[in-house]
Design a protein that fits this description.
Helix content is 43%, strand content 19%. It is of the alpha+beta class.
Length: 457
C-alpha cells in the first residue's frame, strides 16, 4: 500500500488510500516510444528507455488477484505477495534482501482484485543484476514452511489493523452489498483470519503453478538502461520458463444497480460517523464512459475545487468528503463519501445526494469542468514523471485491458464535454444505490461536564 494521493494511476483521497488495495481511476501514461515483445511462452515484455536520471524501475505484473479467489482461497494472492521475496533455492530470504540492498535497490509489492505487482527500483548501473534477482523470484520462489509461518504473522497483523479502519469496513460492506456472495469482488483481498491461518505450502505451490505463469505475466522495465542487453537477459532468463496452462473460467453475470436505496447501518467506536453512497459504474471495457466517469469524479469530489469540497467541506457540513472510483476489468463502484459528526448521518446522506442531483441536472459551470480536466492533467504529469510511476501505469493497463489504452487517454479526456458529464451522471448516478451508514460513538463527557449535567438535571 502507498499513502500518497497520486500513484500508479490511482486516484483516491488519502483517507481511502490508506485502506484499499489497488483502487484506481482510469489513468494514462504519456505517449511513449516503448518497445513491446511477446516471448514464445506468452510472456509480454515492455521496455521504455528514459535517460533523464540514472535510475531504473523493474516490474513484474501477474494477472492474478482477488478476482481468481473464492470463499476457501480468499487472501491467497495477497499472502503469496508476502512470500515472493522470501528466497529461492539459490538464495535464502535474508540473502535475497541483502543482495537487493547491496545494489542500492528498494523492493515492494501490492495486490489488487485484478493483478499483483512486484518491483525493484534501483540505480540503473545495476539494472541487469536486479532483473536477474527479480526473475529468480518469479521462477523459483521457494515457499518454505518457515517463511510461510513468519509471514503469516505479518499478514494477520495487517488483517487485525484493518478491522479497526472505518474506510475499510465501509468499503467491504459496500462490496458485499453490490456484488453479492457469489462474485469474487465481494471478498476481502486480504482474506479472513480463518483463511490466512489455513494456507500451507501445498496451497501456495498449487497457486503458483496455476496463476504465476508466463502467459499471465508482463515484465516492464522503465529507466536509464540499454535495450539490447536487457532484452538479451530477459529472453535468456525466461526462455525455458513454462508452467502448465490451465484455463481458468471466470464468467460472472453483470451486476445491476438496485431499484432504489439499499442501506446498511453499522456502529463504530470512533468519534466520527462515515457515510458512503455507492453507484454501479463502468468497467475498463466500457468506452467512452470510463473517460467520462473519470472527469465526473474530479468534478464532483477530487480536489479543493470539487463540488463536495466547496459546498460541503468548506462550509463545515463535512469534515472530509470526496469520490472514489476503481477502474477494473469488471464494473467498479462510484462511491461518494462523507465524514462528519455523530448523529448527522442522515443529513450527510442527503447532502451527498443533493450533489448527485445537481450534476444530473447540469447545475455546474463550464469553469467547474475546466478545473476538473486541468487538475486531472496536472496530476497525470506528477503520476508519470518518475520511472516507477510510468511503469505502474503501463503495467496496470497491460494487466486489466490493453497496454495501448494509455496512448490516447489524455486526448479522450480532453474530448469529454459538458453534455457527456450530464449524460454519464444520469446513466450511473440517477438510479438506485447502496448506502452504508457507519455510526460513530460520541466521546464520553469529562468528569466536570458530567457533574454539571447531573446538577442541571
Amino acid at each position: 500500500m502507498r499513502y500518497q494521493i497520486v500513484i500508479c494511476g490511482r486516484w483516491l483521497s488519502v483517507f481511502f488510500l490508506c485502506l484499499l488495495w489497488g483502487a484506481t481511476l482510469a489513468w494514462g501514461a504519456p505517449r511513449a516510444d516503448y518497445y513491446t515483445e511477446v516471448l514464445p511462452n506468452g510472456m509480454r515484455l515492455v521496455l521504455y528507455e528514459n535517460p533523464r536520471a540514472p535510475l531504473c524501475s523493474l516490474n513484474i505484473f501477474c494477472k492474478v488477484g482477488g478476482f481468481e479467489e473464492n470463499i476457501e482461497t480468499m487472501g491467497i494472492s495477497h499472502f503469496f505477495e508476502h512470500l515472493f521475496f522470501r528466497g529461492t533455492p539459490s538464495l535464502t530470504g535474508h540473502q535475497f534482501k541483502r543482495a537487493i540492498e547491496a545494489l542500492g535497490g528498494q523492493t515492494n509489492a501490492m495486490t489488487s482484485r485484478d493483478f499483483t505487482h512486484y518491483f525493484i527500483n534501483l540505480p540503473s548501473r545495476h539494472a541487469l543484476e536486479g532483473m536477474e534477482l527479480l526473475a529468480d523470484a518469479l521462477k523459483n520462489a521457494e515457499l518454505d514452511q518457515e517463511g510461510i509461518d513468519q509471514e503469516r504473522n505479518a499478514v494477520l497483523e495487517e488483517y487485525r489493523m484493518g478491522l479497526e479502519s472505518p474506510p475499510r469496513i465501509v468499503n467491504q460492506l459496500v462490496s458485499e452489498m453490490a456484488y453479492g456472495e457469489h462474485h469474487p469482488y465481494s471478498l476481502p483481498i486480504i482474506g479472513t483470519e480463518s483463511t490466512i491461518r489455513s494456507f500451507n505450502r501445498a496451497d501456495f505451490l498449487k497457486f503458483r503453478d496455476t496463476f504465476i505463469s508466463p502467459e499471465r505475466t508482463t515484465v516492464i522495465v522503465v529507466g536509464d538502461f540499454r535495450r539490447e542487453p536487457m532484452l538479451a537477459l530477459l529472453r535468456r532468463e525466461f526462455a525455458n520458463f513454462t508452467r502448465p496452462q490451465r484455463r481458468i473460467i471466470s464468467n460472472y453475470a453483470p451486476i445491476k444497480p438496485p431499484a432504489g436505496e439499499v442501506q446498511q447501518v453499522q456502529s463504530s467506536r470512533l468519534p466520527l460517523s462515515m457515510v458512503m453512497l455507492a453507484f454501479v459504474g463502468p468497467s475498463v471495457h466500457d468506452k467512452p464512459e470510463i473517460y467520462q466517469v473519470d472527469v465526473l469524479s474530479f468534478l464532483v469530489g477530487l480536489g479543493r475545487g470539487s463540488l463536495i469540497n466547496r459546498q460541503l467541506v468548506n462550509k463545515g457540513r463535512l469534515q472530509e468528503g470526496g469520490v472514489q472510483f476503481a477502474t477494473q476489468r469488471f464494473p467498479g463502484l462510484i462511491g461518494l463519501y462523507g465524514v462528519g459528526q455523530v448523529g448527522q448521518e442522515e443529513r450527510i446522506k442527503k447532502d451527498l445526494l443533493s450533489i448527485v442531483r445537481q450534476v444530473c441536472e447540469g447545475r455546474f459551470s463550464d469553469r467547474d469542468l475546466r478545473r476538473a480536466k486541468a487538475f486531472l492533467r496536472s496530476n497525470h504529469t506528477f503520476a508519470t514523471e518518475t520511472n516507477a510511476g510510468l511503469a505502474d501505469n503501463l503495467g496496470y493497463y497491460a494487466s486489466i485491458d490493453d497496454l495501448h489504452f494509455v496512448d490516447t487517454y489524455l486526448e479522450r479526456i480532453e474530448a469529454v464535454s459538458r453534455e457527456d458529464i450530464i449524460e454519464v451522471a444520469k446513466r450511473y448516478l440517477a438510479g438506485g444505490y447502496y448506502c452504508v451508514l457507519l455510526k460513530g460513538t460520541p466521546p464520553a463527557p469529562k468528569a466536570g461536564e458530567r457533574a454539571e449535567r447531573e446538577a442541571k438535571s
